[in-house]
Amino acid sequence: MTERMTKFRYFTLFDYDIEEKWLTEMHASGWKLVSARLTLYTFERCEPENVVYKLDFREAKDGDRESYLAMFREYGWEFMYEINNYCCFRRSVRDTDEKELDIFSDRQSRIDMMKRIIRWRLLPVLLIFLGGFLANIPNCLQAPHISSIASHILVVVWGIIALLYLFIFIRCYVGYSCNMNRIEDPAVS
Fold first, then answer.
1. Are 92 and 12 within one domain?
2. Going edge to edge, which strands form the sheet with 4-8?
3. Which residues contact 37 (CB under 8 A, 6 or more apart)?
4. Given 101, 119, 150, which residue is the final one in a domain?
5. Does the pTM of the predicted model rise above 0.85?
6. Domain end call among 71, 101, 131
7. pLDDT by residue (tens digit) across 17-67?
8. Read out DSSP for the chain?
9. Which domain range does residue 19 map to?
């Protein structure tokens, strides 16, 4: 029976490069990725191999998924999984030109991916937070049908959720800034 291992890892929207590096290191240490579900990654024991993993964020368009995946297959990439429009691919480093080990051909395509992430993931979450969450805080504070203690507890819970959102947005901003600096000046890597 093949030995398997499941690991929990959390990556923000702009941590894709950290995720790529981690998956590549896992494979090099003898654990190849077999599946991923949000924050759970399942690996299977394998011979350590020099393999590179890359993530791409694609806009969800009906009908173009097969041609999108076929394009990557044509260039030697194996499709691994798709989670929230992030597609993961892997490719053996053996007998491959270093230039072919990246899925982006130029600086602009990397910037375009960053813009797609902001447009399709970060902005909707931010709008939901600002529109639904912050707009209702005054209502909770002034709700006459809720006791004073319950109102305070509700405000504390909402405060904790707001801090969690703030933490996630700060992590996303830091990841975005680091990635943009690397794109602008590859020597920063």
1. yes
2. 4-8, 40-45, 31-37
3. 83
4. 101
5. no
6. 101
7. 899 999 999 999 999 999 999 899 999 999 999 999 999 988 766 678 888
8. ---EEEEE----TT-HHHHHHHHHHHHHTTEEEEEEETTEEEEEE-----EEEEEEE----TT-HHHHHHHHHHTTPEEEEEETTEEEEEEE-TT--GGGG-S--SHHHHHHHHHHHIIIIIHHHHHHIIIIIGGGHHHHHT-TTS-HHHHHHHHHHHHHHHHHHHHHHHHHHHHHHHHHHHHH-GGG-
9. 4-101
Query: Do 19 and 94 fall within a single domain?
Result: yes
Residues 22 and 43 in one domain: yes
Backbone angles phi, psi at 185, to 5 degrees: -135, 90
**Crossing angle, helix 148-184 and helix 107-117, to 10 degrees?**
170
Print burial letters for 106-131: b (CB count within 10 Å at least 16), e (below 16): eeeebeebbeebeebbbeeeeeebee
Please name the amino acid found at residue 123. Answer: L
Structure tokens at 101: 């080990």
Q: How many CB atoms lie within 10 A of CB 33?
A: 20
